[in-house]
Write a structure and sequence with these properties.
Length: 402
């Protein structure tokens, strides 16, 4: 055994992690159908006006606004309907004095008309239309370029594409955009006891969990997870595994980061690169390491599934989002009374999982090795390092996982 001689506070760990996250500069061109939740790498500038013509904003009649002066329910103004225009049609008639043209919402405005009277404010008999409301010039008309003008920057580089921003780009006729590439995350589970799910489980062995939880974390927060073969607990195996991981933007080991005789990740990391920290004063997740090899950042995550996933949220998520140029993660929170007393490890910042039952936060944490400590939880609350216990009934801020 090689026990921890010291650990660093969580605040120092997150600072070092964020300092080591370099935003990606690689870009790729993607079709607009795949652009949601990507970060734009180049301004999109409109080459056309949107809408590209003046259009009716209501179903009704295109009119000369001055022809409706004084119109009311008791004294309607009489106009003659000379044509009808639907969406996708080009008007062929000009509206003259005392005339109107029936228009559908979104149809191009006929020449001569400068307003639309809503159909609800009219009565019609054959081609005779009686207008019961006054309209002003420009009323119920969508002006050409009112939404987007040609030459206008529609979405700027560095902005996160949302459904609405994708829609704005589509409105200009663009079919694809340049976005920043998602960082490639090499995931490497280690341990002689780890078995790929679907394979026979021999005595003393367990199925790999961490690769799947970390893959989900990477996928949700801007990365592309690349699963590598499970590596055994030897320096030779780990070194070969590391060779296969180099070339990716980020390497994440799970297992082998603690202080046991076969916890060798630190040896490999020290031999081939730099260790920025090993051991964080948190629970769960104390045996976490961070460093780099040849400029490639490396996380050494604990093998216990809850410890691994917890620090996946606390350390890997902010790192990956910065690398992917995504905005910082701002999970939803809710206040709830704690159902029963919770003890905390002295000197360690604790992330304690809870589930919400009828508005009350029920403790869900079992042990660092039990994935259901998180699978059966809705979120977690934080217990400061100098707090030994949180009493039942205390209002806590629950940080939700989704």
């Amino acid at each position: 055994m090689r026990p921890f001689t010291s650990t660093i506070p969580y605040s120092d760990a997150i600072r070092l992690v964020l300092d080591g996250a370099v935003p990606t500069t690689r870009t790729e061109h993607v079709p607009l159908t795949d652009a949601d939740n990507r970060v734009l790498a180049q301004d999109v500038t409109a080459t056309i006006d949107v809408p590209p013509f003046n259009r009716a904003a209501m179903d009704g009649y295109a009119v000369i606004a001055s022809d409706t002066t004084g119109a009311s329910a008791v004294a309607p103004r009489a106009l003659r309907c000379v044509d009808r225009v639907f969406t996708g049609q080009v008007p062929t008639r000009t509206v003259g004095a005392g005339e109107c043209i029936e228009v559908a919402t979104g149809a191009p405005m006929p020449a001569g008309a400068d307003a639309v009277v809503m159909v609800e404010d009219t009565d019609r008999s054959n081609d005779d239309v009686r207008v019961r409301a006054v309209v002003m010039a420009g009323q119920h008309v969508g002006r050409r370029g009112a939404d987007i003008a040609a030459g206008q920057v529609v979405v700027r580089a560095g902005e996160l594409l949302s459904p609405a921003r994708v829609g704005a780009i589509a409105a200009t006729g663009v079919t694809g955009v340049d976005v920043y590439a998602r960082p490639s995350v090499a995931l490497l589970s280690t341990g002689n006891e780890i078995v790929e799910p679907g394979q026979p489980l021999a005595p003393g062995h367990i199925y790999d969990i961490n690769r799947f939880t970390l893959s989900a974390i990477a996928g949700r927060h801007g990365g592309v997870a690349v699963a590598l073969p499970i590596a055994g607990d030897s320096l030779a195996d780990l070194s070969r595994a590391l060779d296969g991981a180099l070339g990716h933007d980020l390497i994440v080991f799970s297992g082998g980061s603690s202080v046991g005789e076969r916890d060798l990740i630190l040896d490999v990391l020290r031999e081939r690169g730099t260790v920025l920290f090993h051991g964080v004063a948190v629970k769960p997740g104390k045996p976490t390491a961070f460093g780099s090899i040849g400029g490639t950042p490396v996380f050494g995550m604990p093998g216990y599934p809850t410890s691994c996933l917890s620090n996946g949220y606390m350390l890997l998520v902010p790192f990956l989002r910065k690398m992917a140029r995504l905005p910082p993660w701002t999970p939803r929170t809710i206040e709830a009374p704690l159902a029963r007393r919770v003890m905390s490890a002295s000197g360690r910042h604790q992330f304690y999982t809870v589930r919400l039952v009828d508005g009350v936060a029920e403790p869900a944490f079992k042990a660092s090795g039990d994935i259901t400590s998180m699978a059966n939880a809705d979120g977690y609350f934080e217990i400061a390092a100098d707090v030994d216990a949180v009493e039942a009934g205390t209002k806590i801020k629950v940080i939700l996982f989704t």
